[in-house]
Amino acid sequence: MLTDRLHFRQNPFCGALKLDRREWRLWLVLALTTWVALPRADAGSGSDVIWTGTASTDFEANANWGGSAPTSSTTKDTAVFTGSLTPFQASLTTNRGLNGIRFESSGWTLGGSGFTVQLAGGGSGGITTTNSSGTNTISAGILLNVLQSWSIATGGTLNLSGVLSSVDATRTLTVAGGGTTIFSGNNTYTSATNVTVGTLIAASNNALGTNASGTTVSSGATLGFQGGINYSTTEALTISGVGVGSAGAVENVSGVNSFAGTITLAAASTVGSASGTLTLSGAITAGANLLTVTGAGDTTFSGIVSGSAGLTKTGAGTLTVSGVNTYTGGSTINAGTVVINSASSLGNTSGGLTLNAGTLKVATGFTTTRTITLGDAASTISVDPAQTFTVGTAIGGTGSLTKAGTGTLTLTAANTFSGQTTVTSGTLSANADSALGSTTKITVNTGGSLLLGASTAGSNRIGNSAEIALAGGTFDTGGFSETVGKLTLSASSTLNFGSGPSLLTFDGTSSLGSSTLTILNWTGVIGAAGGTDRLLFDNSSFVGGTSTNQILFNIGGAYYTADFKTIDGNTVEAVAGMSVVPEPSTIFAVGLLGLLIGWREAVPSLGSPFRSSRKGWK
């Protein structure tokens, strides 16, 4: 064998190693073979090549790179865009490879729709931005050749409008840095997406590629939606944390958007909507992690929400929950509005509802046995038109209750909340003993009605010392009897006796101010106490501060002023008196007519401009 003839001898050219000619040739062949077989020393260690853009938009033209375009290799050069914008922006004219792309200032566009850059991205490759403001755009396609980790600087934005694809599903893409990345192309990559820092915005359907591998949002990062998209691809999404600036691990940035994928909470997480509306139609599996919804925009959960830690609503926006939800941890409304349409909207009824400074809005009426706790002076229950929401268990807490919406809220349990009650619109019906037994004051505004409903435990629906403050609204006895605190009026209001015999007693410290109380459906003998319906004030001092024409009885369309009858020594009963007065609107019309007649009579003496010297005009 040739190797058998290789031996060492002294030689001035090689020092101690001496080779004959044949042996030298053999050594050279072996050395060259070994050099070719070994990895290149410069693999993946190419240069940063800066775009100068002085000649044209052609990415391949050497003159646009100050001498030599980047090598078309995924292990070589990084294309760098820096400083002030050049006369020409770069645009691909062929498919090519790059180790990386780096933007060091904003306003750049790497064009070439229909062409693709294949990125290896090892080491310092991939896509990197260092600009702290402004936007850079890549409209060319990007092919992921290896695992990618892109770093987008805080304050800056990178918009990828071209197609993002991958060699296979193992090329995981990680989006990092504190900035914003926008995927607005119809992407086809099959690998997983990890958002570890900053915001990734899906601005098109399939922005996150196929649903083969899913997307994970780490704590402190955000996946956003914008552009009015219907994201019908059922991407599996795993989220953690509150997101960038506590805006949400999932956030509706703007517009009306929807996402059909399933969402799994890996930790306590927040879904936000800055503006517009985000609809999540897939199942949300929270496990033992709290789900919070926030933001000034609106959010809809139409899929099933499950878990054991519950749901919390913050922010001024509206959350609509329409699925048959099974979560058991209860619900808390701290701000904004939560819209429900069934008993299961807020999960299993074993989980209570804490209503703080927010609104529970009932879109479709039903009866609930869920425990409700009021924790704020602005706790509101709103019921939509023609709907009835019945609460069959006790409402507790130290907060106040505000009834809104033109529908009816019916209370059929002995409630213990200690704050005040306000009816801004619609009807609040007290249908149980102590239904409003612990509230200190009930205010009924214009458009609102306080109704006494049927009770199996007698006539103590309202506490005996609770003030009834009518501010343009109606107190309707429903044909039942009740003893309450003082009556106060801040605007002309109505008292309706309903269709049955009623005995209504107010505290004698009542005051009508300068307003008028109109009595409807009163049954009794005109001018006589002790009728079927009775209106009592338990202190005769009420009469001294009240004019008889401040209480008007509407009987068959005719209006009668009040007559005060003293009974039982100190109790005063208001009944319809003998004086008949016109209906209030008639009084106004007659008064207006009188003013017009008086003005006409006064016109000639004032030198009216309607007079003319022409014959026949007076």
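the 2nd protein, sequnce then structure:
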Amino acid sequence: MFGGQEQRLSCQSFLTLCANGGRGAMRFSLDESVWTERFSLSRRRRTSGIRIGWLLGLSLMVALLATFSASAVADDDDDEPPKSGEQEEGFLDEEQDEDLPFIFRPEDTFIIPDGEIKKGLDRRVMLSDEDGQVVVGRIHVEGDDRMLVMMPDGKLVSVASKDVQPTDRPFEPASREDVEKKLLEGKLKGFKTRRTKKSRYLYVYNCSDTYAKATSNILETMDDKMMSFLKKMKLDIRDEPEFPLVVLMFADRDAFDDYRPMPPGVGGYYSMITNQIVIYEDRELTDMMPELALRSAVSVIAHEGCHQLFYNVGVQQRFSQWPAWVGEGLPEYCAPTETGKRIRWKGLGRVNNLRFWVLLQYREYRDREDWFQLRDTIEAERLSSLGYATAWGTVYGLHKSRKTRDKFAELMRDLAKLGPLEEPPEPGYYFTKHFGEDYTENRKHVVKELGKARKSYVDPIENQTYIVAVIERSGLGFNPSMISTSPKLLREWARETMGELADSGERSKLRYQAFPTRTQARQALARSRR
């Protein structure tokens, strides 16, 4: 390795970070999540600056993965965490359960009906909305003494059965104009809106116009292709969503949390309760790590866009309980982003470089041949960052393989029948029903397809812009130098180092150059030092 000291995590440390869903990694400061190699004023004090080598790549990527792994479907969870069996470390265990950031309680109380669960069957009721107006709602699901009711704006409310009145009046979804007006009269007063004539979406934002436009471009680029993909699997879906697809975009993290507080590291979410995607423009990260910020934003937007579309065209019913591996693996399969020379939505079913990177790091530190833990992922009730990566790999392999592609479509049609709050069968039921109980054979199909995918894989750590900065001294001695992905850190380092030289009476000059890969940046710096 060129210069500095390379630090490596043990396999155990890597698994611990992944098992915590990146939460541990998110405790690193932003400075520690940037790839930086720094060479100090003294040759004897040549140091690794801010966590370099594989450890830095891991912290950066796990932090990023935690952001869009944690950008989950928000719902109300039971007080009692699900019990876990003996899972492979890195997927789930009981001690880790409380730290996993993938399911959150809404800000307001939302009580899930219990007892004998009955489907809504298009029954309607009269009830008061949040403004005190009497409206017609449609029963989504009903328990013994409580029900979830779909409101005209697409939100779900939890009400006591005694507080509603049955009616034969029709349920009429609100228009996009009515939804927009209601949103702007509440907590989002003063926000801008954006919509196109043919769009299914309503964008409400106080972020920059650039970020809002980029978000709409990603979602609308995905939209029609996603619908075609779902129809090819012969899923019984609606041609158009019943409600406007609302996307809320906030200017910064503070505004995002003011709307609804979220744990650190959550970059966005889709809420099954409000039917909204909620995201924010991370300007601090943009200044610190421009490319990482853009990649993270694209990934979160694409992933949450998949969730929202699935719930609104009939692939999933809100509060239906899909197995985690397909519920999260499918959006990861549908929403890969380009992490090479261009940063964009790559297209449905393409290699997800970010998830593949995690799998490859895990494989490197596994002693056993069965590094791809198919069964543990299939049976996990919640997923860590490693679990998300394996879920993506599982869906990728099953859908790409000619031997399992039709079975995967059958699985999807079966899952689409699941109603809200239906008691899920034992873990692994749907997988073994459609693919059989031979996990070893199924694993071979998946790993074979992942092997083919290596040809299209682009290392997301290696392939980002690296800046080489060298401070040329007027006196004798070693010229301080630095390689970093962060313009902000480079500015701060140059200011501090050149100040030290000035204090000692030396003149200095800063020169820098950007390179598209880490290898090229290291080679250029090595040449300059000869």
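The longest helix spans residues 209-232. The CA atoms of residues 127 and 133 lie 8 Å apart.
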